[in-house]
Write a structure and sequence with these properties.
twelve-stranded antiparallel β-sheet; binds fe (ii) ion
Length: about 240
């Protein structure tokens, strides 16, 4: 299928994929690649359109019925905690047309390449390529880790309005170890709103999601994994543990 056909194909709700995102966002400019390389993190505020946020929330709500609860310590990531509900890409692809189409949308992939300063491509692993992460109980957290793939685009569908309620991204670029996230100078904690997104240099940036601080809060994101033509894979098995 050509890119042009993909761009104009409506999803089940009749909204063309390009209208789900603001790919002309001012957040990506000639300095983005340098900032991403330095900070490990590039905020993309308001990347989702109002239609995009509404539609992806509907998709996520339907998918949540298929998602599984995960409560364990991940051995390959220094026993960091996982208290969350997840759904892997292989189930999402069987159920959603919109999310796989958005993942490979040429406008989005081009935007990410511009932001990264190098070509990015989708990955072939059906489990890891696009996943759903839901924190919905007090204490829920996605503990410290690095990703197997070099780039992660995270799209916020739900998030606590108040940073004091947790669910924040805590990250350290160019981390020597996951322990450095708590001790090293340079770690940052950032808050996002529904409709926001960020691009992370996710294989070298240690990162986690801080715990939800009380009942009644929800944080729902889609995580899209991308690679580059020159990236060397370093699979850890973490995606298999969390999403299968
Ligand atoms: Fe991650």
């Amino acid at each position: 299928m050509s890119g042009t056909q993909e761009q104009t194909t409506p999803n089940r709700q009749g909204v063309p994929v390009p209208q789900l995102l603001r790919t002309d966002t001012a957040a990506v400019d000639s300095g983005s690649a340098r900032r991403l390389a330095t900070d490990g993190y590039l905020p993309l505020p308001g990347l989702l359109t109002a239609d995009g946020l509404t539609l992806l929330r509907q998709e996520a709500a339907a998918l949540e019925a298929l998602a599984g609860r995960r409560d364990f310590a991940m051995a390959c990531m220094d026993d960091s905690p996982r208290h969350m509900t997840t759904l892997g890409g292989q189930i999402i692809a069987e159920t959603s047309q919109t999310i796989p189409a958005l993942y490979q949308d040429p406008h989005l992939v081009a935007l990410l390449g511009q932001a990264a300063g190098e070509p990015v491509t989708g990955i072939t692993d059906p489990v890891e390529r696009h996943v759903l992460n839901i924190l919905h109980q007090a204490g829920d957290t996605h503990g410290a880790h690095t990703d197997d793939q070099p780039y992660a685009l995270v799209l916020f569908l739900e998030a606590p309005a108040d940073p004091a309620d947790g669910g924040l991204l805590h990250f350290l670029p160019h981390a020597g170890s996951l322990r450095d996230l708590d001790t090293a100078h340079g770690a940052r904690t950032v808050h996002h709103r529904p409709g926001d997104a960020y691009l992370l240099r996710s294989d070298t940036t240690a990162h986690r999601v801080t715990p939800l601080m009380r009942p009644g809060l929800r944080r729902t994101v889609l995580n899209f994994a991308y690679t580059t033509p020159t990236a060397r894979p370093h699979p850890t098995g973490s995606a298999t543990e969390l999403y299968t």
